[in-house]
Amino acid sequence: MPQDAIRTDKLTKTFDRAVAVDALDLTVNRGEVFGFLGPNGAGKSTTIRMLIGLLRPTSGSAVVASFDVAKQPLEVKRRVGYMAENPYAYDKLTGREFLSFVGDLYQVPKNEVTERGTSLMKLLDLFDDADKIVEGYSRGMRQKLGLIAALIHEPDVLFLDEPTSGLDPRSARTVKDLLTELAHRGKTVFMSTHVLEIAEHMCDRVGIINHGQLVALGSLAQLRAHGRADASLEDIFLELTGGEDTAELTKFLAES
Q1: Are 190 and 243 contained in the same domain?
Q2: pTM to 2 decimals?
Q3: What is the residue range of 235's domain?
Q4: Which of 5, 81, 115, 220 could form a disulfide with 188 if both were Cys (CB 3.0 to 4.6 A apart)?
């Protein structure tokens, strides 16, 4: 895989007359943890769905793991992992059976699915529940299972929508450490999250999207260079997405 794991050129998606993603130009490097941030409805999930081939762009193009998403969708799907904000799993299967099913879809040898699945379930404290029906899983357990399923075929590029949602602090820390380790091994993590503290401490770079347009891109240091040197990612985010009033209200309440 070349240095850039993801590259878009004027990637655009419209729904009727509404522009969800507007001429997005973006490059994400191999081995990078990249945070994709924005308010609700800004275009984050739409962008991810186009990048993994679940949604056809209106115009523009995207290359993921060296393959054109529109022209070579199967090659892209073989090389990416995806976890939605609310991961789907078949309720009547056990966790172990679901991972076996996903492994079969990706044509991963059964012994590798067993070995990899067992290792990840132990890491994420899901091993003791591996043979329980998914229907009885809590939200956090489903989140862990969804992440393991996204990793079962060892993808080159991992797309995650709110990866720590529903997790307790210990599990969230384990997931953060796992994603950082994957990046160190050359994998690319493209992560959408509303938890700006996680993005600030984990991500090598962030992109901020608002009303379908990329309004900022860079490391925290690069983003600070255009404003206050001591600004947090939350400060920068609120300023760029029109949340100054919220920031002022939070400051007023804190000082009251």
Answers
A1: no
A2: 0.89
A3: 222-256
A4: 5
